[in-house]
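Lab notebook page, bench 4
Experiment: in silico fold of construct C2
Operator: M.H.
Input chain length: 495 residues
Purpose: comparison with the prior construct
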Amino acid sequence: MMQDITERSDSAWIDSWPRYRFLAQCLAVCVALALLTFGGTALRVNLTAISFLDLLLVLMVAMLCGFWQATFASLLAVACLDYFFIPPLFRFNITDPQDWVSLGAFEFAAIIVSRLSAKELRNASEAAIHRKGMEQLYELSRNSLLLDLHQAPGPQLAVLIQRIFEASAVSMYDTILGRQDEIGGWEAGEAELAQECYLRDAAHNDPKTQTWQRILRTSDRSVGALALRGNLSPLVVDALASLAAIAMDRHQSVENEDRAEKAKQSEQLRTAVLDALAHEFKTPLTAIQVASDGLLELGGLGDSQRELASLIEHEADRLNELCTRLLRTARLEAKDVGLQTRNVNVQDLILTVLANRAAGEERDRMNVQVSDSALTVCVDRELLAMILDQYVDNARKYSKPGSPIDIGVQECRTEVLISVHNIGSTICMEDRERIFERFYRSPDSRDTISGTGIGLSIVRKAAEAHQGHVWVVSDEKEGTTFFLSLPNGARRKQS
């Protein structure tokens, strides 16, 4: 109870302090004028001198206290001059023009000086606030460099802002992490101010409650929003929001680097494991192939037994081809494939690939168009054959039964362009780059058509080993076309 009484007493004193200060200043003016008037009468100072001294007193009051105190000093000074120094002495003569001239001069001086003084005080106050804001921003920028960027930046920034800028409450919304962090004494219903500011996509100032809201923007996007309450200037709040946005963007960059490094390490580990498994599979596969060949050579098998032996041989060949692809991928990933380049006739290589891949009706649907039958490229024949084989195999699996498959070769000024076109299932835009990633298969076909997702990744690595590149164009009306581009340096013409 005593504490409540003390608090109420302190509050009443704070509320009434401006009135007490005004009365104290008026009393000081009265004392100063009394001393000045007494000294002037005792020393028999003339009217001009005492008027000048009174004017100086009014100017000092206007400069130190304000306009209303100076007005009070002007009225009191004119009354003293009229009573003590203007004849008839010791009588008030308010009709005397000298009184009105003196009062006008004093009042005009009070207005000019009080306004100049107030402006100077305001400028000094603003300069002090600005200087303090710059110091606080410098401290925040220095401390933001020490943030743990592997942790969420919101809680760390909120604590720093509240401590450095002496804010009563801080709220930060991080759209990247989808979280909001608050600190300080927010009132009911104000905890979501930062998120509301982000959704509204507009800054807001409330000088009455000293509440500031800002969007946190980087060069190309919004990363969140900031709401805080404290005695700050709008310019400082803008700079503060920029520093907070930079800190959030740095956190995102570090997160992306960590993910990329983890993905790289995971890919390296997976490549090593697949390489080891492929080597281990080669030995039993060779034994299976030899055994199945031996069974077929020995003869004496029934029709069903011969069919089973042929199936074993065929599937063993498929597994052997898959292991070979895995080993090639591992070497291409490690960049130690060692290209065996030589001049290769493109048309002859395509016909060889088709002869090994397709026969009968499958061969009849293949259309080959080469701009120059004598065109050769300086490449690794085995790798280029592998690319063509994969393109043809994809076109055969994903095309409509019996539809034509067009294989084209064009010689351009800067490159040799090889294309394989088919009519059938299409590839959506978001998958056209991802299908060249290892083990990725389009959701539209992964459950209907067999595959491993390895072939196209090997194609891209083999093309990159030749400083070329691959891509795909797909449309429901025009069909799907896979392209391989080999640079001008790989192009040769037979003599």
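Observations: Residues 148-336 form a domain with the Beta-Lactamase fold (CATH 3.30.450). Residues 103 and 307 are 127 Å apart (CA to CA).
Next step: discuss at group meeting.
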